[in-house]
Amino acid sequence: MTVCQAFKTVVAGALLAGAMQQPCQATDYRTDRLAAIAGKLGMAASIDTVAAPVFKTCALAVETEHDRVSHIGISLFSEAQRQAFGTTVCRFLERYLLELALPLHPDRSCEEQLAIDGVIVTPAVIEPRLSAATLQKVVGLCADTTVSIHVVTTEGRGYTMSFLRRGEALCRISFPIDYNLLMGVDMDERERRLPQELTMHGTRLLSATVPFAMPDPQQLRKAWNDNYYTLEGGHYLVGALTADSYYEKDDGGQLRPIFRPQLPVESLANLLLTGIIDGDYTLSVRLRKYGFKTDTLLTTPAAWLAFCRQEGCKPYFGLIAMSGKEAECELVMHCPDKGFNHVMRLKVPLSLIAHRKGVIEARLNAYVTASRIRNLFEETKQ
Length: 382
Prior knowledge:
Elements: H1 3-21, H2 32-40, E1 54-55, E2 58-65, E3 68-74, H3 79-85, H4 87-101, H5 110-117, E4 120-122, H6 132-143, E5 148-153, E6 158-165, E7 168-176, H7 179-183, H8 187-206, E8 221-222, E9 229-231, E10 235-236, E11 238-242, E12 245-249, E13 255-257, H9 264-274, E14 280-289, E15 293-299, H10 301-310, E16 314-322, E17 326-335, E18 340-349, H11 351-355, E19 357-368, H12 370-380
Parallel strand pairs: 14-19
Antiparallel strand pairs: 1-2, 2-3, 4-7, 5-6, 6-7, 8-9, 9-12, 10-11, 12-13, 14-15, 16-17, 17-18, 18-19
Helix pairs in contact: 1-8, 3-4, 8-10
């Protein structure tokens, strides 16, 4: 049995075990918060099958991904607005408005909930509970063609959505770029769900072919010799942590990604950043959790990359140290829209390059906030 076959067996066993432990549900939800919202609406078992769900005369936006409900909220934004403002911002405001209107936390007033979450609305919300009239006013504001809507970010720390008419501000909503707030999860849930999400995405990836998207030659920069090209992807935090990938021409003059023992750094960057290197690679990940707990995940570099890209991350690679037999690397998956980073420290046997198979040991700090990532880099140096 190859490593890849073993990975498939482990994944299948994990899915079977999960199915045996969990009671069957008519409707599955991406987060506990979405399940709670559907329960409050009285549609926990059917919200994804209702043709036109409504709350207090307002249409609801309900979205599903991979047979799970991934979004529930007051329908505020058109598809064109979602493209312009970003799915993360639009989904959050739709869901958050519904949470306030239900209310999801009946023991808190709107003012108290806004203060807890760091959400600032101007003019201030003075209603203890959002009325149907207020909901309709917000819906109408988003649909009003005489109103222009602008979204800006403040140094990566927060979003502000402004509603303007002829240059006059009608309303402003500001909120932090915080993964827990934007996605409606807490620390325990995100750590609990990460292995499940990765397992589900890994099985989909293993059953599909990964397209080999060769870059446009015009985008490549020729470097120190006639057969060495770099596709520059920028850097993050430090100059040595880059999204660059590397290419060379074969005997027929066709471009191919570099993957050979003579260029180990470029080869490892391509393996971890592109997902297009053929071979039998296993990524054994020790997930560091809150309270000094750990969990072990078994996946592949390609599956991890695909999972993180699905979350909206851009990958960055950096070499920390290299011995004769092993390279120590940093792999950071950066998601600016949702305000988090997956930070992975890897130990890669260099024999993996020549043999095109092997096991990579990794230590993962998941969902690290932008404010914490510099401190984490200092910790990992110790």
